[in-house]
Amino acid sequence: MNIPVRRGKDVKAGRGTALRCKGWRQEAILRMLENNLENGEAPDNLVIYMSIARAARDWKSFDRIVATLTTMREDQTLVMQSGKPIGVFPGQATTPLVIMANGNIVGDWSGEESRRKLDDMGLTVYPGMTAAAWQYIGSQGILQGTYETFMSVGRQHFGGTLAGRLLLTSGCGGMSGAQPLAGKLAGASTLVVEVDQVRIDRRIASGYCDATTDDLDDAIARWLAARDARQPLALALCANSAAVLPELARRGIVPDVVTDQTYPDPLKGYVPAELSVAQARAMRQEDPAKLMALARQSVATHLRAILGFMDRGAIAFEYGNSLRAEARAAGVEDAFRMRSFVDLYIRPLFCQGMGPFRWIALSGDPQDIYTVDDMILDTFSSNHPISSWIRLAREHVKFTGLPARIGWLGYGERSRLALLVNEAVANGKISAPIAFTRDHLDSGSAALPHRETENMKDGSDAIADWPILNALLNCSSGADLVAIHGLGGRGVSAGLTIVADGNPDTAERLKRVLDGDPGIGVLRHADAGYDIAIEQAGRFGLSETIPPGLSE
Amino acid sequence: MNIPVRRGKDVKAGRGTALRCKGWRQEAILRMLENNLENGEAPDNLVIYMSIARAARDWKSFDRIVATLTTMREDQTLVMQSGKPIGVFPGQATTPLVIMANGNIVGDWSGEESRRKLDDMGLTVYPGMTAAAWQYIGSQGILQGTYETFMSVGRQHFGGTLAGRLLLTSGCGGMSGAQPLAGKLAGASTLVVEVDQVRIDRRIASGYCDATTDDLDDAIARWLAARDARQPLALALCANSAAVLPELARRGIVPDVVTDQTYPDPLKGYVPAELSVAQARAMRQEDPAKLMALARQSVATHLRAILGFMDRGAIAFEYGNSLRAEARAAGVEDAFRMRSFVDLYIRPLFCQGMGPFRWIALSGDPQDIYTVDDMILDTFSSNHPISSWIRLAREHVKFTGLPARIGWLGYGERSRLALLVNEAVANGKISAPIAFTRDHLDSGSAALPHRETENMKDGSDAIADWPILNALLNCSSGADLVAIHGLGGRGVSAGLTIVADGNPDTAERLKRVLDGDPGIGVLRHADAGYDIAIEQAGRFGLSETIPPGLSE
Ligand SMILES: NC(=O)c1ccc[n+]([C@@H]2O[C@H](COP(=O)([O-])OP(=O)(O)OC[C@H]3O[C@@H](n4cnc5c(N)ncnc54)[C@H](O)[C@@H]3O)[C@@H](O)[C@H]2O)c1
Ligand SMILES: NC(=O)c1ccc[n+]([C@@H]2O[C@H](COP(=O)([O-])OP(=O)(O)OC[C@H]3O[C@@H](n4cnc5c(N)ncnc54)[C@H](O)[C@@H]3O)[C@@H](O)[C@H]2O)c1
């Protein structure tokens, strides 16, 4: 068989219906690996994102993975240790083709310095969440996740929509640049403050921003006008947030929703109010101590302004960027009065087993994704969160790599969709198998006390049993790929991939895996005492699975 | 069905052939849990050993576990989080009945203080290795492990036997008290120095020690005489090691093998040479600082004497008790010139997939174990390490709880035995199913940089991917119970249990699981660069499972 081996910048996912492997399940995993690199940041170095999260230990490992996937049978199991293939063991046709443990390090040795040393020694990789598990599908996740958060804010506080609301945020960079479009898609009149014009221009070019100005009065006028007209808007103001926010407050303008996605590190990210971007960059070299002091002051000012809005009725939350911790270090004692987005807006979804589910058209044909889009619009009611997203995504999301879609679905819904898709693959309505996967940031699959599991109701933020159980369950119930990731000393996460290959026997496995995966997430949250999760567990019959036992 | 529920001190493992569960696999797991408690240290508190390692979160959890095991089907999976049953999910009849994650905590939160806090909050348990995985079978493991170490020393340095050799060690307490008998069983003339006569008397009573004296001249005479006569001996000298060892050196007596199993903690364990046991105990309250200083001095003297023997040709090794670290803290800069027992004597066995395999007669009938003993003597050559052990064990090991046997078997051998046993269960030669399990301290199932994985050839001591992969593989290949344990910030381990129920279909699963489990251990050591493991992986065909890949 002629395997088109491509490396580095050239890696492209296989497409079409011809197989290079002994079956579609193996082929699917191979295409996911290739797609991971096709979407990667620095594929030459196997780096997928964050400058360090890698898809394989090295190119030799990559070659051996490809050689293994193209020759292994479906009743075998490939064992992957931190991006290196270790062996192929006899398995079962209904259990994983690939099992992975990436980046796991014994606690006392898991700090950054020690982790880096083990990485330099070639013994581990930083796996990120999806990178080493071959599940990255490009930047669609950021837009969708940000949109989902804003929608959740709308549902919780504004009767279901941000239309006619003022959304204020900061940062228009790598990930933060998804905010203006996400805010607009969620219906809000969105103003994003960004100090660097270059960043704004890039987002204007990509359609993530409608317009830009560096005039505060102009910005305010357009922002308020859109609010009054209930007109969605994505407007960037080129200015410093530590100056703009207090000024808005002075003028008596209170946003309905306020958050922030600057990079608040006082040395590496945050531009102090007194300096231009260029000045800050120069000072980083010349007088880091001074830069640090200035940036700390500005971060404090920035957060104090947000807290001020909060006290005047605004919905305020931290958006995963450690603004509170930095501000507290800068002297804002009550920084943690503001809560985080996971805690407030994502956790209620996790309690229902909802999370960033995704599916990839292994054919490479966008039509297959559109077919799934239509199935979703048919299947789920028009006021289900996913329905409005699917309509928007179709218009706004450009495919990168293999066509793929992200959509937040919950317990029962994921398997429902997967069974429909499996049928459609069987009867040819979809041209080739579809791979289902999800971010590791999901209902039952992450333990990250500074983000995903911050401030759990029962204090179980750091309990890492949950993602491990999630992976063991997915393994026993028959996912095609299962991964457990250690994220330095900061977290543990778990991932899975399962392929709807159109085989009728696969249906049972899809049902079991795609119910169990969010199911254990619901139970994790029920165990922590969340009412929604307890209620959902009851509704789904999950809470009756353990008999009550005997007396107490 | 009438379930005899017993709690606390009363828990006894079910025996005989009547089932309380829907199948033997479930019944086996239930009996293992009960047997765990039957052998436990403080069953009233669910404590199995080490004062803190527990079998279940609390009695309510225990009751719910029992209720679940007695009602679940074999195609279901019970999910256990740190000793608490969380839910029962649809599974497959050929994958685990029980999956467990116990005591796993995110790295930065896994230190002792934080771990204890989470334990106090009722969110985790300290699982030990076998305690929370329902695999403890009493103290047989200590005797057998110590014996195996001494035998390995004999094979590596003395042509296969310690007969006619002087073995010197210290400590005759809880675990250390296995040393005199183990040394004697290994053929050596064994002298154990123990400062506390009470401890010695206890071991004389239990048959672990032949004789005791507090006269050094007498001890030396008997020790040397037994050596000269090639007569195995287990003699305890009541004295302080920090005084005895330098005195032996002064007299020019050099043991062939020297180690130590005192508890070298200068405050909680080690008795300084200047003090009696009673004085040391009193000083612990009255002047801990002084006790600490004295004990440190003695620990240093003790280790320096051992290093002196080493320089004069003795085989010296640390036996898992942190003597070197304590001595270094006391100023012995070159303490780590001496290596550890795992590194020197156990790792070569791990490289062959050999480790503390064990089997339990679920009938409760000792005859079933004797039948397995006979199968082993028939099946494995008489110079296989296990053969001499089985003969000795039959004579010296008293059963506690369900009759059980430990025996070190390697890759291929474990499955060979299990298939024979499964047949014997089927044809009634064995009266009821046999459960197979092992210590977590096994070839591929532990990452403990201070013990099991100390000083790995490639520096991979702290890489925790391996036990996790071990568990995922056992899960996908179909063990009946799989567990991943976090041991504070110090380690990660994995355990499995699988039942030979006599069903012909079980044979395939037994073969797959009991080859895969040590198989991944062999590959873990081959990956770290150990020649024996590389050679074994080749011999077993494990190294050819990954195709070489393409070019470099
Ligand atoms: N789901 C999540 O938790 C999530 C999602 C996205 C981003 N984040 C976090 O958000 C942060 C930003 O990520 P990024 O990739 O966009 O980083 P980035 O550095 O690319 O972007 C940050 C932007 O903030 C701008 N900025 C800095 N100081 C400013 C100031 N005083 N006023 C206005 N603008 C200022 C910078 O010019 C830059 O464009 C990170 O900490 C990231 O982890 C979290
Ligand atoms: N496989 C292993 O790694 C392994 C196996 C067994 C024990 N150990 C280690 O060995 C140590 C001892 O375990 P234990 O359960 O026997 O503890 P223990 O406290 O019950 O026994 C230690 C004994 O040492 C004696 N002792 C103290 N100071 C002495 C001195 N100066 N001279 C002579 N005797 C002295 C004490 O009186 C006591 O009886 C522990 O650190 C344990 O972890 C390791």
From TrEMBL, chains A, B:
Q: Which UniProt keywords apply?
A: Cytoplasm, Histidine metabolism, Lyase, NAD
Annotated NAD(+) binding lies at: E194, R199, Y270, V271, Y319, G489
Q: Which SUPFAM superfamilies match?
A: Urocanase (SSF111326)
**Which InterPro entries does this UniProt record tie to the protein?**
Urocanase (IPR055351), Urocanase-like (IPR023637), Urocanase_C (IPR035401), Urocanase_central_sf (IPR038364), Urocanase_N (IPR035400), Urocanase_Rossmann-like (IPR035085), Urocanase_sf (IPR036190)
Catalytically driven reaction(s):
4-imidazolone-5-propanoate = trans-urocanate + H2O
List the pathway annotation.
Amino-acid degradation; L-histidine degradation into L-glutamate; N-formimidoyl-L-glutamate from L-histidine: step 2/3
Outline the extent of the Urocanase C-terminal domain. 348-537
User: In which domain of life is the source organism classified?
Assistant: Bacteria
Quote the subcellular location field of this record: Cytoplasm
Q: What are the Urocanase N-terminal domain coordinates in residue numbering?
A: 11-134
Q: List the GO molecular function terms.
A: urocanate hydratase activity
The segment(s) forming the Urocanase Rossmann-like domain are 138-344
Assign the protein's first listed, main location to one coarse class.
Answer: cytoplasm
Q: State the free-text cofactor note.
A: Binds 1 NAD(+) per subunit.
The signal peptide annotation in the UniProt record is none
Which EC numbers characterise this protein's activity in its record?
4.2.1.49
- What job does this protein perform? Catalyzes the conversion of urocanate to 4-imidazolone-5-propionate.
Indicate the family of this protein.
Belongs to the urocanase family.
- Which protein is depicted? Urocanate hydratase
